[in-house]
Amino acid sequence: MAKKYLMTPGPTPVPEDIRNEMAKPIIHHRTKEYQAIFKDVTDGLKKMFKTANDVYTFTSSGTGAMEASIVNVCSPGDKIIVVRGGKFGERFGDIAKAYGVDVIPLDVPWGSGPCPADIKDLLKANPGVKGVYTTLCETSTATVFDIKAIGEIVKATDALYVVDVISGLGADKFENDAWGVDIAICGSQKGLMIPPGLAFCSVSEKVWKAVEASSLPKFYFNFKKYKKSMAAIDTPFTSAITLVIGLKKALETLNAKGIDNVIAEHTAQANAFRDAAKAMGLGLLSKFPSNAVTAVNTPAGMDADALIKLLKTDYGVTFAGGQEQLKGKLFRAAHMGGIDKEHTIESIKALESALLKMGYNFKAGSGVEAATRILGE
User: Fold this and answer.
1) Closest C-alpha to 73, from 198, 234, 221
2) Is 1.10.1160.10 the CATH number for 5-11+259-375?
3) In angstroms, rounded to a whole number, what is the distance separating the alpha carbons of residues 159 and 151?
4) Where are the domains of the chain?
5) Could you tell me which residues are beta bridge partners of residue 316?
6) Which of 30, 202, 205, 213 is most buried, with most CB under 10 Å away?
7) Domain 16-256 falls in which CATH fold?
8) DSSP type of residue 157
9) What pLDDT is recorded for position 377?
10) For residues 78 and 218, is the Cβ–Cβ distance under 8 A?
């Protein structure tokens, strides 16, 4: 059977050794055996986030943790600033509105990043704002935001700083504590190399004053319940045992290599892919490209979705398409998690072949040549 290459920004490929761990007989979660695994996972996550804060693990997609970051700190009528530079920034606003929280939007052109000074102005104009919500990597536009610079502004106020690092963690640089992040949100199916189904929130001490004042309804995603269970190295509800076991193996691999070294590897893959795209005459959407994922504009007149379909059916390479107004205009290729040098080179080879088949004129082999200059033969 021909080898297939999953290049989507979640889920990403799950390495064989992690799959093997998850294939072992299941164990009971209310045992010392599982508690030892869960402790290792929690400690490993703290290293990935670069935090001394609690990190809570939910059985959910990343959106569940996004919801938790709102319902645990807000009350009806509270105001939050939301950076809307893509689909996932907009999702923060949608969740807040569903709970009666007022949203002060900072709209950013898709493919660009927020100006920290604009956030400073919004905070000054809206005293009492409960928090500033943004993303590290806006997956829909493959754009990385300047989280460090925004953090310098927010930490000088009473507002909480909430960052979605779901796709960026492990590919783009992120320093939870050094950058003043109060709640960081992540999911399992991207840089952490396991299937979808787990979500995480790092929670700073600054958050707890807001938690005590919050009157929004909450049950499953209640930080207080997770904090109480964490004292016993446990979770308040049934854990996704198999996923946690797989995560233990993934974190051992990532932390043994060193998170900065992991990021350097994905940075090289991202640079290689972007150089390949440019060598083929293709343009990038983002002005501030993330190392987790790259958004590439298709040539004028070419349907990006048709290209993606051809790549999957004829070459076994799966890219992601554009979302919302970008649908049919671009494809997105990931560089995170289990995606490695082989995935990058082979997907570029397939992209060249598919573009030629669809009638696009460029120098054949130019993309692979550009990529191998960075990644080697």
Assistant:
1) 221
2) no
3) 11
4) 5-11+259-375, 16-256
5) none
6) 202
7) Aspartate Aminotransferase; domain 2 (3.40.640)
8) S
9) 63
10) no
- Looking up tokens 């007022």 gives 102
CA distances from 236 to 56, 72, 190 (A): 10, 16, 25
Q: Which two tokens stand for residue 17?
A: 């050794």
Give the angle subtended at the CA of 59 by the CAs of 222 and 225, to the nearest 5°: 25
Question: Could you read off the pLDDT of 49-74 as tens digits, one per residue?
Answer: 999 999 999 999 999 999 999 999 99
Instruction: Provide the CA 312 distance to its chain's centre, in angstroms.
Output: 23
Q: Where are the alpha helices (DSSP H) in the chain?
A: 16-22, 32-49, 62-71, 87-98, 116-125, 147-154, 207-213, 223-230, 241-257, 259-279, 304-315, 341-357, 366-375
Beta-sheet pairing, 293-297 with 330-334: antiparallel
C-beta neighbour count of 137 within 10 angstroms: 33
**For residues 148 and 172, what is the distance between their CA atoms, to the nearest angstrom?**
12
Asked if residue 81 lies in contact with residue 123, where contact means CB atoms within 8 angstroms, the answer is: yes
User: φ, ψ for residue 151 (rounded to 5)?
Assistant: -60, -35
Please give the single-letter amino acid code of residue 183: I
Question: Could you identify the residue written with the tokens 């509270």?
Answer: 78
Supply φ then ψ for residue 296, to 5 degrees: -115, 125
Query: What band does 249 get if pLDDT is binned at 50, 70 and 90?
Result: very high
73 within 8 A of 166, measured Cβ to Cβ: no
Place of tokens 């030892």: 36
Q: How far is Cα 136 from Cα 150, in angstroms, rounded to an integer? A: 11
Which positions ≥6 away from 53 have C-beta within 8 Å? 46, 176, 177, 202, 203, 204, 205
What the block records as the tokens of 49 is: 């986030």
Take residue 302 and report the two structure tokens written for it: 């070419």
CA angle 210, 206, 188 (to 5 degrees): 90
Q: In the numeric block, which tokens belong to residue 145?
A: 């935001």
> Are 327 and 298 within 8 A, CB to CB?
no
d(CA 301, CA 361): 13
Tell how strand 5-6 and strand 317-318 pair up: parallel
* Residue whose token pair is 């997609």: 61
Q: What is the mean pLDDT of the chain?
A: 97
Can you tell me the distance from the alpha carbon of 290 to that of 284, in angstroms, rounded to the nearest whole number? 11
